Amino acid sequence: MLLMMMMMTTTIKRITISLQYHTGCRETAFVYSITSAAVAYSVARSCAEGGVSTCSCDNRVDQRPAGEGWEWSGCSDNARFGHKFSRKFVDVLEKGRDFRYMINLHNNEVGRVHVTNSLKKVCKCHGMSGSCTIKTCWMMLPKFRSIGDKLKDRFDGASQVLPENSVRGRGRRRRKFNFSPANHMHKKPGRRDLVYFEDSPSFCDRESSLGLGGTKGRECNASSLGVDGCDLMCCGRGFTTEEYTVRDRCQCIFEWCCTVKCKMCTFNRTRSTCL
Amino acid sequence: MAGVVLETLGTKKLSVLIISLLLVLAAFFLIGGLVSPAPNNVIDTIAMNCVDKQKLWQLGTSKPFLPRGKNACYHIDSLHEDQAKKVDPNQIVFSQWIPFIKKHNQLSMSRWFQNLIGVVDLEIEFTSKNPYSEEKSPEMLLEARLYGRFKDETDDDWRLIAASQERRTLECAIENDMREEGQRYNCDLLPLFELGSVYYDFYLINVRLPVSEKDEYNDNIGRLSTFKIIFIHQNGGFTKVWFSMKTVLFPMVLAALCWFWNRVISQGRSTNLTERTLFSLGIVLSVMNCPVEWFTLAFNLPFMVLLNDIRDGAFYAMLLSFWIIFVGEHMLDQIERNKLSAYWKHMTVVLLACLALLIFEMCERGRQLVNPFFSIWSSEVGSIAAFTFIIVASVAACVYFLFLCYLVFKVFRNISTKRTSLLHMSTFRRKYYSGLIFRFKFLMIVTLLCAALTVIFFILGQVSEGEWKWGDEDITLEYTSAFLTGVYGMWNVYVMALLALYAPSHKHFAADSDADIDTLSHEEEVQLTQVPSTSASEGSNLTSFMAKTAAD
């Protein structure tokens, strides 16, 4: 657990440092949300593995003396613990009271809300003679990938907001901010929408001050029209295509786990790189 | 035939009684909803991927693989990364130990939990290279071992509770737009084990998915990424509420039963069928109420779940038989039944349904006493047999309800024809018939109410799924618990009310002594059978038919 926390802190720090001069753009919003989502997710998962001894039960049980509450009504709320943990752990990194702080807190919360909302309900019938007179349900964590996919959709539809003082709720609504969208035709961002206030840099050229490497030398897909396509990625500078041979595994036999028995074959492949 | 208590009660007394019974019912519902927690709790876990480096399991040693603690096994985080490359699938042992450590406190299972169910949820990833076989659902072979130990013992003391090799069919599906590398199939849960008692403090489960070139097991199941084991147990709080309820109800019903039988005996005449049936209903209910579950706190009694199911089933079978006999005895058609053989058709149907369910239950739960990993649904023959039993039971249930509806319909028709002729009868005969009609209608209303409430609560429970919240978050109603305690309490109250209200009354209609009324009523009955009333002529075809079948 401690090791995991340390690793996460360093990752988060590295990400924040590399983006600290441009903390208001769309990409930052995504990074913030997926980081806090990942923290919540992996803590919940570790609790389910039983390897973490700090996991707690839900509030209701905590009010009773330890042991008694467990005997009375059990204990199973790993996702909520992960959510709470991520709030304490990730939000602490945000200091200050400015607009950027609020944007980051909001985006952190977006990530966690996506984890909580993507929990899937699974039920099992076990009543008299196995009938459905008694049905027990529980919430199951999905694969992290599907949470990432949802956040990517939110990234594509993120709303730009005006950097002005926004009203902040109190008490339970402490994490609810009232942002006004830059385009008045757009609706106000909700608790699942990513927000940003600065335009993104082009990412085309190298800017070491921002920690951006530029796209020179990046491999691109010549046949794609999307962001991975050579047209967009190389920012109009053009690209080179080369053919190369590679030895790779082929005709593999798989089991459900672990061993893969393969032959080695030689393939001819092409690769495009941005100039 | 003398009247029953119900007829001699005044309207005022009756309404007070009914209201107090309703209040008791509401109390049962609220005890479940407000005091008791949810009936069951889930421990959803992800199994550790232990590696059996020395291949001990394959060599036949029964050494437990622990997921954590001092003697934790060597485990790998992912089944598909570099770490796993040197491992053979036969070496992977999925392992989990419940309960967990929460807030630095190693929890322990409690005997109040009563039962423990284990379910496996496999996470299968989509890969085009190693696809899950969608044309033919693949057969799995699970080698499972279940261990238990007490709190004050050490890791050397893990006791093997059961070990088995089980076949399961893995049913998975994936939507077409999800067919990308790394996406997940939706797989059905695989039943793993069911324990009828939670005797030990800790439980440890080890599962292996062996592969071999000879057999086809565990082939084509695709790429397994996570092996989740879900444990379901009854909550201690619910058990406490349940036990208390049974302990309170048992002497109450027993007292009512004794009072009723005493009343019947003190009449100084031979008992009639309705009374005998009601008495048996009370006995079966007392057997169901008898809180023998207290013994599970001291002893290991895995058969308790089976016993409870049988006791519940016996009660419902008795209740169904009681309805048929009661309706039949209030037929108002001058056929002297008063013996069980007159109802052999209806009884056969009820017995058939119960027998089918009992056999099914013995096959599933009974077998699980020997092997907790057994599931009747896992083999093809077993699931066909199970389906057959369930279908037989449901068909019998349908036939039963048709019978019952037909009988009730007949009674109502007789009542409506009797009503016109009621005015022309002598006072005694009128009182006798109107008493019979009142008794019947009262039971009909109460029974329909109870049945309707059960069905409505059940449907509400299916829709709401567990918990209802009212107003602030402080007031939560555990709906499933409320349903269970409410329904249990309701049928207890129902039987107690019947025992009280349908006991023979000490008050008599007009006569002075018991002997007089008996001879008088007997004369009346003899007369009745001879007087060709309108109903008798109308229903003569039916009555002759009934008499014939009865004679058969």
UniProtKB/TrEMBL annotation, chain A:
Please provide the Gene Ontology terms (biological process) for this protein: canonical Wnt signaling pathway; cell fate commitment; neuron differentiation
Query: GO terms for molecular function, please?
Result: cytokine activity; frizzled binding
Name the GO cellular-component terms.
extracellular space
Q: Where in the cell is it found?
A: Secreted, Extracellular space, Extracellular matrix
Keyword annotations: Developmental protein, Disulfide bond, Extracellular matrix, Lipoprotein, Secreted, Wnt signaling pathway
Q: Which Pfam families match?
A: wnt
- Domain of life of the organism in this record? Eukaryota
Q: Which InterPro entries match?
A: Wnt (IPR005817), Wnt_C (IPR043158), Wnt_CS (IPR018161)
Functional note = Ligand for members of the frizzled family of seven transmembrane receptors.
Q: Which family does it belong to?
A: Belongs to the Wnt family.
Protein name in UniProt: Protein Wnt
What organism does the UniProt record list as the source? Answer: Elysia marginata
UniProtKB/TrEMBL annotation, chain B:
Query: Transmembrane segments in this chain: where?
Result: 248-265, 277-301, 313-332, 344-362, 382-409, 440-461, 481-503
Q: Which domain of life is it from?
A: Eukaryota
Wntless-like transmembrane domain ranges (all copies): 235-506
What is an annotated GO biological process for this record, any one?
A: intracellular protein transport
- GO CC term (a single one): Golgi membrane
Query: What is its subcellular localisation?
Result: Golgi apparatus membrane
- Pfam families found in the cross-reference section: WLS-like_TM (PF06664), WLS_GOLD (PF21883)
Q: Which InterPro entries match?
A: WLS-like_TM, WLS_GOLD, Wntless
Q: Does the keyword Chaperone feature in the UniProt annotation?
A: no
What membrane topology term does the record carry? Multi-pass membrane protein
The text of the family note is: Belongs to the wntless family.
This protein's name = Protein wntless
Species this protein is from: Elysia marginata
